Each structure stands twice: as structure tokens, then as C-alpha cells.
Amino acid sequence: MAALGLSMLVSSAWADPIRIVDESGYEANFDGPVKRIVALNRYNTEFVRAVAGSDAVAGLDRDAWMDRDYWPEIEEARVVAANQGQIDYESVVAQKPDLLIVPRNGAWQEAREKLAPFGIPVVVLTGWDVLKHEENVSMLGLLTGNKDRADGLNAFFRKHMDLLAERVSGVEQPKVYFEADRENVTILKGSGWHDMIAAAGGRSLFGDIDVATLPESNRNVNIFTVEPEDVAAANPDVVLRLTPAVLAAVPAEKAQALVAELKARPALADSNAVKDGKVYLMSYYVAGGVSKMVGALQLAKWLHPDRFADVDPDAVMREWIEAWQGAKYPGRHTYSESR
Amino acid sequence: MIVEAKGIGVRRGGRDILRDVDFCVAPGEMIALIGPNGAGKSTLLRSLNGLVKLSDGTLSLAGTPIARMTRRQIARVAAYMPQQAGDTADCSVAECVMAGRLPHMSGTDGGDRQRVFETLERLGLLEFSERPLSHLSGGERQRVFLARALVQEPRLLLLDEPTSALDLRHQLDTFEHVAVIARAEAVAVVVAIHDLSLALRYADRVVMMSGGRLVADGAPSAVVTPDLIRDTYGVSASVGRVDGHTVVVPLRSMGNDRPAGE
Amino acid sequence: MAAPAGAGAADAAARRHVRLFRSRLLGIAAGAIGMAVFALWCTTIGAAGLGLGKVAAIVAHLLGAPLADDLKPSDVTVVSHLRLPRIAMAILGGAALGLAGTVMQGVTRNPLVSPYTLGISAAAAFGASLAIILGLGGLAIGQWLIVGSAFVLALLCALIVFGAGLRVGTSPETVILTGIALMYLFMAGTATIQFLASEEQLASVVHWTFGSLTRAGWPAVVALAAVSLATWPLLMRYAWPLNAIASGGDDFARSLGIPVERVRFVVCIAAVLLTATVISFTGVIGFVGLVAPHMARMIIGTDHRLLLPFSAVVGAWLLLAADAAGRLLFAPTVLPVGITVAYLGVPVFLHLVMRSRGRASA
Q1: B261 in a domain, yes or no?
Q2: Is C152 inside any structural domain?
Q3: Which strand (E) or helix (H) includes residue C30?
């Protein structure tokens, strides 16, 4: 017993050095677990908080911080950047972080150069890349010495993704018209949302379009402007519309008004979706939660209610927000007429 | 002779702008260059100080062939007042005139400054010396440009229609100044001018041009005659005397059978 | 005021002229000193909480003195790597842009000319975007390749403008028209690159296009200092020819013995080198090249012997002020200097335009 205690004491005193190689091929070495991380881009910050807790977030960007409901415990002094492209290095240094993490579309080259004299490594980690979800979470677990928690988050993710995959196999896929937060703006194959719809056992309405055949002005897979007539012609079975990315839920009256407006649109008025009352609203938070896993679950429940009767997406969302993020779950982020 | 030009010609794009011109100017002489638009007056003027390159002929300034002179050397002999002189300029009078000292400037501007202000005084411009050009009237501005040419200490003054935009009084004043200077300092003056009466009044010699060639060169009364005016300008005019001055009164344009300038 | 008559009048006026010139020289010195003082104050801006006393102690330490007790090594690095190079870049870059704008305006006799209208800034932006989309940014010396590419394209643009000028004649109109045409061409090129870029490359391109002093480190400062050292004395030597060209026109200047084509060529090359060097490191910073000459002219007059140094001083002021404003107004968010200089510059410029139009009808 004493020997066990002694060996644990010894091993914790001599923490193993940690070595990681990031997306850009950069190798970073740390003497021990990292305690203070400046995490730029909301997805990165979320993952750090999930794996290592709020106190590990030494700094974040203003775009994320502005959602006060989601980060109430983080004071303004920890804002060190406007966004992942405009970083105030003096503020970063003042927070005395062990590490800065930036997604690959942030200013990581500049950050590396500016922070090198201070000995602060800059690791490229792209939290919003759903394909790298488990890899990113594991890396964060390794860095912060919270391997167990990281594994737990990955298990949480994996369990639900596997459940989805299992239950939607062989199912008939309804056509889903996905609208981002602006009228007539949808997504194409190549976008993470497209994959989310597929994972939920649906078929994205414009998922068959080959991007190469499109004019150059309208090729962004995440923001594709579509003609109302094309929507009408495609006759979606389901309409899924995203609402703004803030923690606070959309008030019921606004949600109802939005659904009414969608149903009244000439392009949609005669569609199967409107006739069957299958017009759904989902907030970016739910849709994007845990790399879109929660969104997929919720959509799956709407598309195939019989197969997912025992699944409660709200509970999963609540677990993500409360257990992993330590924030307060404000209530439903989704809206469906049949409720 | 300040200027000795023999058989000079200027060709541009296959066209003869100046052809076979013999021309000389003695110190202190004032020569009026007259002729219709497009006759080549400006070109002749601008070839005299090397602004326009000659295609044919020889030209000497103060005895030296112009081909052997550097631009700076030319600038110490000949001063040029262009037709449209710096209408966008916002510099002060003193600064503007000081630029005329460039061909002579040696570094310390004590001597240059003295010359500039003496000239300004002579032309009655002292009170404007620090004012921007845009604050002066047309007549005052013209005096500034004259001062600028004078501080160059030229032996040859080339004036391209200096009075076209001036009122009656300033036209007279300008020529009075120039005549005094020509006489007092033996500066040769060549003036391109439209106003034939002014030419008659102030010039020692008149040179009439047409189509790039010299048509006449001699005493004013010999050149500015109704016949020559009709042949060159295509205008029927009367030359007479008023109050001791010879004046030209245009009577009637001759119409299509006598095209002007040809 | 009646014209004073008498023998002493010319001398009195001459002495007055000299006094005015000397007082303007003093004005330039005062402006430069003021700028230095302002720059000193700017060294205290930043989240690290280092006031003037601490900054001074740090500078002393960098020059050899031992480190004071209340200072940490990271404080020293903040000053030496983040603050000082940024301020040096603001001063040198602002001065370079102001000077380049002034000589270009003088030699083209057009007060609306600036490095932009030669298309240089647009060409530099295009060069940087090209390097980024070719993936050069990811290489080890990636940042230098981007800088190099921006610089090369800027020079190429200038060569085209002057090449066209040599064939058609370097009249002010030719230079400006060719420059504007090239500006549109390069802007279209950059927009095309933005279309074809992946999301990260696009973010990189956009990030570069926002002029910012943050990127510039000591190597940039040294490069700019070298170019400035090579060009400023040259431009000062041409002060009088610029006076003649700006006030009298090409023909008149030629008649004074000035080699106008050569002056225009050398001056423009110098201006292009200065501008290209600045923009390659900082991204696109507009307005300084346009507004600094006008502000300088309004205060110090049109004599290029005074105007050239003073426009450098004004340019430095503008960029320092824009950087300070960008850092202070929305702290801790830092607005890039390329943006704030437009906010500062546009009202000033509009004011100048209104004023000059009011005076024009003389």
C-alpha cells in the first residue's frame, strides 16, 4: 500500500514530457501537462473547456466572448483577440499562457513568429473540422493531462454517432431542404452540414450537384445561393432552418413567426414539407454541438421518429452544455410545429 | 549677333512644321513674330532655345552652335516664357521667381536672393513676394513670369504670346517693361504676337511667317502692309496712323478663295 | 499694404523672405520633435502595463544596463519585439509613404496622385495573394516569399507604367492613366484569387490585405531604413527641379536646363521603391501617400526643400496616430492601421478638398 502510494507520488512529481505534432507538421514539446491555453475560435475554446475546464482557458477571442450567456464565468480581461485573424500579442503574453491554439484559417504563421521570442508555442488545431473531431479532442486531452476526460468526450461522441449509423442504415431518405440563417442560402456536398444530414438518414436537397459545374461566383459549399424555383421543383419533404448561434433560445413567438414565414413562401408553399407540417428550426448551437453530432441526432429524430423514439436529443444537448461546458442549458433550441 | 539661324527646319511625322528659315537677332533688338495660327511661330520660338530639335540647318546662340551647348548653358543665355505658364501653381511669388535662378544657382543663395528681390522691386511685385500665385490677378501673374525670365539674366528673351490673356492696360505695361529692359540691358527679345498694332508699336523688326516659312523680315512699316496681311492672313485690312502710332484695322475676311496660312 | 519705395525695400523683403524660410525650418524641426515625443508616448500603449519609466528602463537594459528588479524578461521582449519595431515601422513607413506621395504629386503636377494611382499598392496585394495561393505561405521562409512576391509585382507594375511612358512620352497624363488601368487590372486579379482560394488561403489573403504594423519585425524595419537611406538624399537633391516642374510646367523646366524626363524617371523609381518596400511588409496602407503631402503643403508651403522633409514628418505622425487610435479606441481589440488611417484620413481629405475648391475661383 505504501509502495503504491510512493510510486504514485514519484510518477506525479516527474511528469512525462509531452510531444505533439499538429496539423501544420509543427512539433511542440512540453515538460508536463499544459495548464493555461489561449484558444482562439469558439469551437477550439469549447473543446478546451470541455476537456480541461474553464480555468484552462487563459484567453479567447471577442467573437466568442460576446455571447455572455455561454461564457459567463470568463471575464473580459481574458479577451486577447478580436478574432482568430486579429490577435493582440501583448494581451496574449500578459495572460502568461503555456500555449496558443488557432484553427488553420487563423493567423497562425504570424502568431508563431510574434510569440517565438516569448517561448509560447502556437499549435494549429481546427476545432470546427468535424472530420478531425476525435483526433483534436484526444490531442487536447494529451496536452492538458486530461486523457480520461478527452476519452470520455470522444466516447460520448462515438456512442451517438454509432447509434445514428446503426439506426439509419437501409432507411428511406427524405429530401431535406437545409437553409442557413439567410433566405435561399443552402449547402452542398463537401459541407459539414451535408454530412450531418446524411448521418441523420436524410438526403440533402442539392447534394447531387457537382461543384465544378457551378459558376465561380457561387461555389462556396457552405454558402450556396439557390433559386426559389429550383427549391420548388425539387419538392423537399422536410425543411430545416438554422437560427442564430447564441446560447439563448429563440423566443417562441419569433420561432412561430419564422415558421409561418417559411410556410408562406411561394417556393415552399406547395411542397411536401409544408403539407405534412415538417418545417423545423434548429439553432446553430444544437446543429453544431459536438461537431454536429447533436444536430444529426435531432434531425434523425424528426426524419425517422419511429426509429428514434427512445432517443432524447435535448438531453444529449443538455449533457453537452452542462456536463461538458459547465454552462446553463437555457431550454429548447429547436422548434417544430408538432410540439 | 545673339541668334544666328541659317536654313533651319523642323519635321514631325513627315510634315514640315518649319522650313528653310534664316533668322538673326542682335543684342537689344525686339523682334515681333507674326502670322496666322499654325504658321510655326511657337515652333520657331521653341527651337531657338533648343526645346524643339532641329531637323535641318544650323543655329548659334551668342556665337556658339546650339548643338554644342548643354541645356544649362543654353538656359544661361536664353529665357523662355511659355504661353500657358503654370496655371495650377500655388507657389509664392518669390519662390516662383527664384526658380528662374536655377541655371545660375551655386549653392549659397545670398546672391540669388538679392537678384530676385531686386527684380521683384523693379516690376513692382515686392508687396506680393510671399503671396501664392493663385491670389494674383492675370496681369500681376504675367509680371511674375516676366520677373522669373529676367532673373535668368538672359541675353535672349523668348516670349510666346505674353499678352493674349491680358487686358488693355496690362498689355501696354508688359510691353513697356520689356522694351525698357531690352534697351537698358541690351537683351534681345523675340515675341510671338497676334496683336499687329502692338507689334508695329514696339518692335524694331517684324518677321511674318506663314505655313512654316518666313514670308517677310524687316522694318515694321515694310512688313505690316495691307498686301502682305491679305496674302498671309486672308484678311483685308487698313493700316493707318492714329495719334502718332501706326495701327492696323481689319476690315473684312476674304472668304474661301484665299485660305489663310497657306 | 502699399509697396514700400526706396533703396532698402528689396533688402527688407529679402530679409523677410529669409525669416519666413527659417521659421518654416523651425516648424519642421518642431514637428519632428513632436513626433518623437508622440512616438515615445506610443511606446507605452499595450496590455503589458509598461509605462514610460519602465520602457525607459528596458531600453537602458537593452543598451547594456542590468535589468531592474520590477521588470521581467517577458517585459523586455514585449518592448523589444512587439512595441519598438511597430513604432519604428510607423515612423519610417509613414515618412516613406508621405515622401513618395509628395514627389509623385510634384512630378506629375497632379494633387490627386499617390502610390495607389500608379497601381503599386494593388500590384503588391496581388503579388502577396499569388504567393499565398501557390502555397508558398506554408513554407519555412513563407513569410519572406510573400514579401518578396509583393515587392516584385509592385516593381513590375512600375516598370510597365514607365515602359508605356517611354514609348508614348512620360507626360503626367500617360503615367496616371496607365497607373489607374493597372490598378484595376491587379484588383481584378486579387479578386479572382480570392474566388479560387480555399478558405484558409482566403483568410490569409484577406488578413494580408488589411494593412497592419503588427506583422513587421526588425528585419522589415532594417530593410525600410536601408531603402530610405538610399532614396531620401537623392530626392532632396531634386528639390529645386521639383519646384520648377511643379510651378512652371515641363517646357519651362526644360528651358531652365532641367532634364525633365530623367528627373521624372528617377523620382518615380525612388517613390516606387519606397512604397513597395513599405507595403510588402505591412500590407495595403492607403491615404498616407495622398493626404500627407496635402497637409504638409497647407502648413509649410510649396517649396520642396521644406515640403519633402515635412511631408515625411506628417506621414510619420499620421501612421503613429492611426496605430495608436487603432489600439486604444476598442481595446483590447486592435483595429489594423490600414483601416484606422482611412477613418482619420478621409475627413481630413474631404476638408482639404472643400477648402481648395472654395479658394479656386480666384
Answers
A1: no
A2: yes
A3: helix C8-42
Q: Which chains contact A through at least 3 pairs of Cβ atoms less than 8 Å apart?
A: C
Encoded amino acid at B245, one letter = H
Domain count, chain B: 1
Closest Cα in chain B to C18? B113
State phi, psi for A71 to the nearest 5 degrees: -125, 50
Spatial separation of the C-alpha atoms in residues A105 and C205, rounded to whole Å: 10
Query: Domain range holding C86?
Result: 38-57+72-346
Rg (chain A; Cα; Å): 22
- Locate B35 and state its grid cell: 502670322
Rounding to the nearest 10 degrees, give the CA dihedral for residues B21, B27, B29, B34. Answer: 30
Only one residue has cell 509560447, namely A120
C67 assigned to some structural domain: no
Q: Provide the domain limits for residue B165.
A: 3-253
Q: Is residue C90 part of a domain?
A: yes
Distance from C-alpha of C247 to C-alpha of C76, rounded to nearest angstrom: 51
- Per-residue three-class SS string for A262-290: HHHCHHHHCCHHHHCCCEEEEEHHHHHHH
**Mean pLDDT for the stretch of residues A122-151:** 89
Q: Which residue of C has its CA nearest to A78?
A: C332
Closest CB from B99, B103, B124 relative to C248: B99
pTM: 0.81
What confidence tens digit (pLDDT) does each residue in B18-30 have?
888 898 899 989 9
d(CA A3, CA A273): 67
State ipTM.
Answer: 0.84
Q: Is the pLDDT of residue C269 over 90?
A: no
Residue of C107, C252, C262, C263 to mutate, testing the B interface (most B Cβ within 10 Å of its Cβ): C252
Which residues on chain C are in Cβ contact (under 8 Å) with B48? Answer: none
In a domain, residue B110? The reply is yes
Residue C357 lies in a domain: no
What CA–CA distance (Å, rounded) separates B172 from B163?
A: 9
Are residues B40 and B209 in contact, defined by beta-carbon separation less than 8 angstroms? yes
All three cell numbers of A210, joined, read 457537382
Residues in Cβ contact with A183 at an 8 Å cutoff, skipping those fewer than 6 apart: none
Q: Does C10 touch chain B (CB under 8 A)?
A: yes
State residue A140's pLDDT score.
92
Lowest mean pLDDT among A216-230, A254-268, C23-37: A216-230
Contact C74 A93 (CB under 8 A): yes
- Domain membership of residue B180 (yes or no) is yes
Number of domains in chain C: 1
Delineate the domains of chain A, giving CATH numbers in brackets: 15-145 (3.40.50.1980), 171-336 (3.40.50.1980)
Q: Which of C47, C204, C215 sits opposite A90 (nearest CB)?
A: C47
Task: Measure CB to CB from residue C207 to each of A80, A85, A93 and give the nearest one.
Answer: A85
